[in-house]
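Case study B.
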Amino acid sequence: QLWHVGRMSHPDFHGGELPHAPSAINPHSKSFTPEGFKDTETPKEMTIEEIKQTILDYKKAAENAMRAGFDGVEIHSSNGYLLHQFFNRTSNVRTDEYGGSIENRARILFEVIDTIKEVMPENRIGLRLNPSLHGIFGMTMDEETIPTFDYIIEKLNQYNLAYLHLSEPFNDISEIPYAEKEIAKRYRPIYKGTLIINAGFDQERGNQFILEGLADAVAYGKPFISNPDLVERFAENAPLAEWDQATFYTPGEKGYTDYPKLSVSKLV
Ligand SMILES: Cc1cc2nc3c(=O)[nH]c(=O)nc-3n(C[C@H](O)[C@H](O)[C@H](O)COP(=O)(O)O)c2cc1C
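Model:
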């Protein structure tokens, strides 16, 4: 996964320099540093030159992934990180070719895909989007947010990507007038390629989505953290182990590689 966090970083990671973002707007969120969570700061607005260099960094990262033997890369254009910060008007108030219109705010994503295409086949490139992200990771939706994702997802049909990985809303957005509450329902008819859906699924709801043709596959996050053998447990209708949120972002093996498989937990 190729992941540039933009303004969600912290000067502690950059020798005291400010993180880079489309605009100098503080997400008023938290960044996880080696010393724990710290308040984010107002980032530095990227120059055109810095944007072009960042696009080339994605190419380099994809090249490195191929050299290291990976089958493909996933572009992390989701969850309030750099590319997502370009999409939304509330995090991108630029007046050059990377801001203003929907097309301009989406431009960097397509330039990133086009440059990665130079070093690997399109069908080795996957991509994540989280259209209805509001009120977390510093992201705020407005009336142009969903139309921007409509434009992006329609345009992705021009590529033969490995997959598009979408998230249903991460939190309760029922009060947000411009939010799309049913992401797969809206975008399955629009996107012609392989569609993966995520966020908040259990086995039953996942199967239901596949059955109804709302997605080709379902991605599980937190259930996989506490169940390294999640697939086998689903197959056997076995009970799932609960995850421990307190260890999600802590260093060391605890809560990371120490959740037992079912066969082991049966013995204990
Ligand atoms: C501890 C933790 C780490 C995560 N790291 C990433 C990450 O590196 N990249 C990413 O795209 N999503 C990451 N996510 C988000 C998950 O991929 C997923 O979208 C989210 O957990 C919602 O799906 P779920 O309800 O199945 O957990 C992370 C989630 C958690 C809880």
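The chain is about 30% helix and 10% strand. The remaining cases will be described in the next quarterly update.
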